[in-house]
Amino acid sequence: MRSLALLLAIGACSPARADQPITGTEVLQKYCGKCHAAKAEGDLGYITDSKRLVTEGYVVPGDASRSQLMRRIVDGEMPPESVKLRPSATEIAALRAWIDSMPTTTGFRGWREVDRVLAADAARLSYDAQPRWFSLVHLANAGASEAQLDRYRTALAISLASLTWSAKPPPVVAVDRERTLFRIDLRDLGWSAATWDTVRASYPYGVARGRVPEAIRADWFVATTTRGPLYHAVLGMPDTDVELARRLGVDLADNVARTIASRATWSRDRVARAGFNRSGVSVNNRVIERHPTRFGALWRSYDFASSVGRENVFAHPLDFVAAGGEIIFNLPNGFQAYLLVDKTGKRIDRAPTSIVSDPRRPDRTVENAVSCIGCHAAGIVPKPDQLRDGAVGLERTDRERVQLLHPSADVMTGLYNQDRARFASALAAIGAKPSEPADEPVTALVTRYENELDLKAAAAELGLRPDELGQRLSRLPLRQILSSLVREGGTVKRDTWAAMFPRVVEGTGVGITFTPRTSNDAAPPVWVDDHRRTWIVVDHASDQATAVGSCRGRGYELPREVELVSAVANGLGAGFAQLSTRSRQTMWSAGTKLDASNLRYAAVVDPRTGVARRADITEHHVVVCVQR
Questions:
Q1: Could you report the per-residue pLDDT of 466-487, keeping only the tens digit for each?
Q2: d(CA 269, CA 301)
Q3: Contact of 404 with 266, CB cutoff 8 Å
Q4: What's the whole-number mean pLDDT along residues 266-275?
Q5: 30's torsion region: left (phi>0), alpha (psi -120 to 50) or beta?
Q6: 37 CB-near residues (< 8 Å, 6+ apart)
């Protein structure tokens, strides 16, 4: 997030008329306009643009207390101390009221409503479909604006299109009118069920609710599959740059040798290089090199740990020694994929910050591919070549070789434009367009996911309202660990939340956490995607407790011994379920091994009334089953 240290400064606007209350926009114009609207200081030229303030995360619509802009004013960080004229209490109140009055995108939707939408969508599909679902509902519930959600929708579409070798971007179908639930088909991605399993095995937020499709959270998916090791696994990235180039029909070393040996005017089937002293990510001098491929182009960079000796490309333009590099190449659909390599050409997940850095990442580390996606939001970044004209001091043969590898500025400009146009066309196919790195959608969604969570955001991830989560947390043993959530202005770190999520889900009665082991291409739809063991949770919409039941008539059988994984749910916490056998009534605690051969029926508790009723086993609320 850009610094807001100079956000408020003395503006040059006319004061509001005495008979009219000042508006929030007028407050911003008055105290921010001179520096930010006029001079665009701090990259905040949009300071009076409410939609842009929301999109950039400075304002949370409908909630001034959670808005960074408002907090910094209230905390006295703004205006800067050097500014004498400061907003009055009335003006601050007007700004607060303006933010609070901003409409949020949609009304709150709990997990039951989401489940109904997903189940209805699944029912419409053909049996041979291979659907998987994604959700942005939790972000909408947390207060994301429509502009932000549009950005996140684009991020999901870009990520999916960048994770496939298919010739076309996969259709991402919205299945609800709010456009926060989406379906894709693995066949469009060119993924097997095993590839999906590789991704799903890392998912920490799975909740089993029976024969209801699971919707993977889109923010987690984008943040996780755009970095190693999943990024490399999904795309089947080879271990070295040479292997990757070979897959694309390119021989890197031979291309360079043939270009030098051509002794003729440069042509488009040859290597093109540009060398320069300054780069946005590299600490030292840098060389970029283009190879044509069957799908477009492969660009690679040569990065250096210093600019002396054979790492100085101006002194050694033909025999420099690089410390590593980045590779950008076109996929068949025109989108871009990325690879980072060390000095031997071996694939790495993260580049050393002593060589390259990413100013957008908290630790400035360049990670494949999330850092590359953010930097190359509009495609390859054009860089003027400084080596061709700088080769005048070389002997004639070397000077000619440099000029063969480094075509004229006009030629390089044409190549940059051609490759950027290809990427722009790919983005247009999914309804997106090139952007500046600061506005890149994938980076925005990854950053949103990595942020700390407040009570509203945490509750939204559970499908609960903040007051509901606060009340339920107060009754749980883990409340001490998450105590910061229920404090005024409190937050919890993302990694802490992910680690605690299974206990929170089961303790608050939202459901049962679920991580399937495997699936296969012939498996039933995704909500039954473990061919050996399946959780079935049915009849959850009535706020009733979970219980053990029967699998009869569904192609599954109940094993002789089952484990009662979760008991009374939905607010009562993991407690007890009363199960009836032929001979006795017994209270069973969660985790108990049950002899299923005598199981007849269960007592189901309504948490709103505390009243138990008999439930025949055919209602099978929670079942641990094995396939016949």
A1: 988 888 887 777 667 778 888 8
A2: 19
A3: yes
A4: 86
A5: alpha
A6: 11, 29, 45, 47, 48
Is the pLDDT score of 61 beyond 90? Answer: no
pLDDT band at 567 (very low <50, low <70, confident <90, very high): very low
Contact 371, 380 (CB under 8 A): no
The kind and range of the H/E element at 272 are strand 272-276
Q: Is the pLDDT of residue 518 over 70?
A: no
DSSP string for 439-495: G-HHHHHHHHHHS-B-HHHHHHHHT--HHHHHHHHTTSGGGGTTGGGGSTT--B-HH
Q: Can you say whether residue 86 is alpha, beta or left, with left for phi > 0 and alpha for psi between -120 and 50 degrees?
A: beta
**545/482 Cα distance (integer angstroms):** 25
Per-residue pLDDT tens for 486-506? 888 889 999 989 988 888 887
State yes or no: cis peptide before 369, omega within 30 of 0.
Answer: yes
* Residue 554 buriedness (CB in 10 A; 0-12 / 13-18 / 19+): middle
The closest of 108, 127, 121 to 181, measured between CA atoms, is 121
* Bigger pLDDT: 274 vs 366: 274
What is the signed CA dihedral for 365, 246, 233, 129, rounded to 10 degrees? 130
How far CA 427 is from CA of 220, 335, 430, 484, 536, in Å, comes to 22, 7, 6, 41, 40
Do residues 339 and 243 touch, judged by C-beta distance below 8 A? no
Hey, which of 9-13, 356-360, 475-479 has the most confident mean pLDDT?
356-360
Question: 10 Å Cβ neighbour count for 85?
Answer: 12
Q: Which of 89, 76, 116, 84 is nearest to 27 (CA)?
A: 89
Phi and psi (nearest 5°) for 625? -125, 160
Higher-pLDDT residue of 211 and 592 is 211
Q: For residue 569, what pLDDT band results from cuts at 50, 70 and 90?
A: very low
State the pLDDT at residue 627: 29
Domain range summary for the chain, segments of one domain joined by +: 24-100, 235-428, 532-627
387-396 burial: b if 16+ Cβ within 10 Å, else e: bbebbeebee
The β-bridge partners of 492 are: 453
CB atoms within 10 A of CB 267: 10
Mean pLDDT check: name the lowest of 35-49, 104-118, 150-164, 283-297.
35-49
Residue 157 structure tokens: 């579409």
